[in-house]
Design a protein that fits this description.
The protein is α/β, with parallel strands linked by helices. The protein contains eleven helices and 13 strands. α8 packs parallel to α9. Bound molecules: oxa(dethia)-CoA.
Amino acid sequence: MASKIVGLGMHAPPKKLTNHDLEKMVETSDSWILERTGIRSRRIADPGGANSDLALIASKRALADAGVRPEDIDLIVVGTCTADMPLPSTACFLQMKLGARNACAMDVNAACSGFLYSLSVADALIRAGRGKKALVLGSEVLSSIVDYTDRSTCILFGDGAGAAVLAECAEGEGILSCHLQSDGGLWELIHCPGPGTVNPLTPDLISRRMMYLRMSGNETFKHAVTKMADVAMKALSENGFGIDDVALFIPHQANLRIINAVGKRLGVPPDRVFVNLEQYGNTSAASIPIALSEAKAQGRIMPGDLALLVAFGAGLTWASALIRM
Ligand code: UT7
């Protein structure tokens, strides 16, 4: 057996943080942000808002879209790097809130690649006969680890959740492949130093603002372009497809210039590239399932179409999935 996506849903908190709002917080401008990133605004959860609450709304929408009941789900995998608590997993909170009493639940932390890593885990478990239906999420409250005094990062990130319901299908349908790659040697490019075992929670950690995300944007940018293009090409070549076979290319929504550069390398026409970062910013693991969900709702992707999903993030991690919708 293989697995396929039978339902999709997304949720973004209503509160908007616009470029003009950021102009009042750090030394930046709407024109700089728009020109360098393509982002106009992002959605922000209320302070203390649980990641699992965003995930819950996205999950309910995906289950309704699939016509599947929570108790029919065997497996919940949440891709996130902004968990509700260090333990238990956000997936366990989601299971409780959803009433998915027959599911086992786990988080996968692959930062912005989290949804594709989670999709791959769920697909592999279904293929191994360890469950028939899975709920897979990318869900983040990035605002909880963003330093709103750092203009090089606070302009990028937003909060949100996207969910997909997977069900068994015949081999050759649904998820045709997942390719996952990592390079831990490049961890310093994007990281959040603490609190953790290396940098425990101390007054010093707080005074040095080490609980916030740090990024070498320019260096990360270069890796994002080459690695996303490479792993996308791997998906196509290993399945015997060319870029012309792909109905919609859905890249991680980090920066419009990255998306354009990757699209150019792949030779995909702009009208077959899905972009929604203008309104959500970079929602890390949530960006691809939010985009996929919106693409389906807007009729940009139809049953039988081939979708190519590509992610990149901290770790470094990067990944692709080729999907027959
Ligand atoms: O999702 C996970 C992966 N993350 C990514 O893929 C993000 C990748 N990186 C990026 O998106 C871009 O590197 C950024 C948007 C973060 C930065 O854009 P950039 O074109 O790489 O700018 P830069 O870092 O080279 O900075 C250029 C200039 C610098 O000033 P000087 O040194 O030239 O005087 C920065 O200090 O722009 C300055 N700058 C800003 N100016 C106004 C940096 N941030 C801002 C800002 N507003 N918000």
